[in-house]
Design a protein that fits this description.
Blueprint: H1 50-54, H2 61-115, H3 118-129, E1 138-142, E2 145-149, H4 164-176
Antiparallel strand pairs: 1-2
Length: 177
């Protein structure tokens, strides 16, 4: 009965000095876990020259994964960052618009105060609408000639029996000639 065969005693128990685990394939029986002794006549391997040590790959797997994660993070944050910038621009635009509207409100309130004055209303009625107070004399200039009359009346224009388009062509010819 040898130790490496794995035979059992008559009691049925395994041998105490037998291997309790399977031997890996490709190993010699009897070869233990001890390192092999150096054989005479063999040289020890030389260390690699420095040029070989400098030939590391340009990008390691970790660097590629890190760059990928940074790009993914940048792409993920690009949309919200762009929206944030657009929101800031919108707020600035709305603030400027609000300031312009406040100025417009102040201008309109000043105009309302000015229009509430009866003297301003009378002056505007005389200038824009040619209103006159009773007793005032109205002078209206028509075609370079002064026409006088009572307040609110104009001299009558003589009617012509020509159609409107002939009147128009006549006035164009008169202005041209």
């Amino acid at each position: 009965m040898s130790a490496g065969t794995g035979r059992r005693r008559s009691t049925g128990r395994p041998l105490s000095h037998a291997a309790s685990r399977p031997v890996p394939a490709g190993t010699r029986s009897g070869a233990g876990n001890r390192p092999a002794a150096a054989r005479p006549g063999r040289r020890t391997p030389r260390p690699a020259p420095r040029a070989a040590a400098a030939r590391r790959p340009l990008f390691t797997g970790r660097a590629v994964v890190l760059v990928g994660l940074v790009l993914l993070l940048a792409l993920t944050l690009a949309g919200p960052f762009r929206q944030w910038l657009e929101g800031r621009q919108e707020l600035a635009r709305l603030a400027a618009e609000g300031t312009a509207l406040d100025q417009r409100i102040a201008d309109l309130e000043a105009e309302l105060e000015r229009q509430a004055d009866p003297a301003w209303t009378a002056r505007e009625a005389r200038e824009r609408l040619a209103y006159v107070l009773p007793g005032d004399r109205l002078v209206v200039v028509v075609d370079g000639e002064a026409a006088e009359g009572d307040a609110g009346t104009l001299p009558e224009v003589p009617d012509t029996d020509r159609p409107w388009y002939e009147e128009l062509l006549g006035s164009v010819a008169e202005a041209d000639g």
